[in-house]
Amino acid sequence: MDAGVPSSPGKFKSDKSHHHHLRLLRWHHSSLPKFLFWTFCAAAVFFLFFLASPHFSSSSSASLHSSSSTERRSLRTSSSSSPAWGGTEWEKRVLSSARIRRRPFGISVLVTGAAGFVGTHAINSLKRRGDGVVGLDNFNDYYDSSLKRARQVLLSHSGVFLVEGDINDGPLLRKLFDLVSFTHVLHLAAQAGVRYAMKNPGSYVHSNVAGLVSIFEASRSANPQPAIVWASSSSVYGLNTRVPFSESHRTDNPASLYAATKKAGEEIAHVYNHIYGLSITGLRFFTVYGPWGRPDMAYFFFTKDILAGKPITIFQGPDSATVSRDFTYIDDIVQGCLASLDTAQKSTGSGGTKHGPAQLRVFNLGNTSPVPVVELVSILERHLKVKAKRKFVKMPRNGDVLFTHANITLAKKELGYHPKTNLQTGLKRFVKWYLEYYTPSNGSYLAKKGRGGSSSSNSS
Q: What EC numbers are recorded for this enzyme (predicted)?
């Protein structure tokens, strides 16, 4: 869920209705086949609509932002200017990066969105324990790509090769699967952010729907088929008011296009599991934060603006209701990702044909302790030793929701997932990293930290 806005109305409705829950389950099982079919059809039609509408970008931009001509349908990437993939040297780097050093239980993982926030931390953890890892990222300009490049340098120090390319590049994916018998795919690449969908909706369909299908297609055709763990989102809970959010709750009332594409992804995952025997685990992340984070997240740009002496905007719900989020520290999220990889069963297909039932799972990964955004700001003030200039405004209809709250009972039981970092501690580590990275006293951050400075858990 986009951390750009806080979320928790103070008093939450408790989930007490056992009979209501049973009715939901009966509805779910009786309507699921039709719902899956029509959801998949809708997603496909939506995608084709964007492909077939050459004037969509300009017309939607004109209607949403009549004064701006800078909106574009596709984000810029580095792939058009970088050398084509392939060749002997390129293949050697892929194979070296994929080599498993942890025997006999090591795994070989293709990580998409590798230069992203969660991707970088997950790769470092996998590499440290001796697993083989190959990264894939298109380095688009949704936010400052120099931060992604810095993460790439960090990963190269650990011996990880990041392939520059797009998840929608079928030939590239086939080449990677031909070179390496990946046991797992950790699919983290996506168009993130709730509000940006109002400016560039096509990018969400391209990355979150078509991109996911592209990964599933490459995986179902691979021999052997890898198990897949992929990033869904807590945004799928949308307008749900039952708290804490549980995996058994309905998710058919999305509040944003971002949420709708993630929901469509979960239904598409069911299809590929059912038809092709892919082992698939979806992870619903709850507002991830920490060192090396995304600049479009609230805690990140609040920090930047507080230090610059600029006002920060804090949203409020109806009647000045508190906005809260279930902020989850990056190390805890990574722990959940690795546990999902380690407990993922093998896919059951080969040659594109299913040979038996395959594992299909969805887990919430949160901290299960919602915090009002105003409290997040107070914590940042203490760590930065600077008073924020607060500006309270009514929350606009931009896809954000008032609160999020994760029920992590299932993840605890099945994954051994136990978040350990509270917001006070996590923000202290983030602020320490931020000040070192953006205002180094002498030399660059990477030069000072050397090869061992990538783990957020090393920050105090």
A: 5.1.3.6
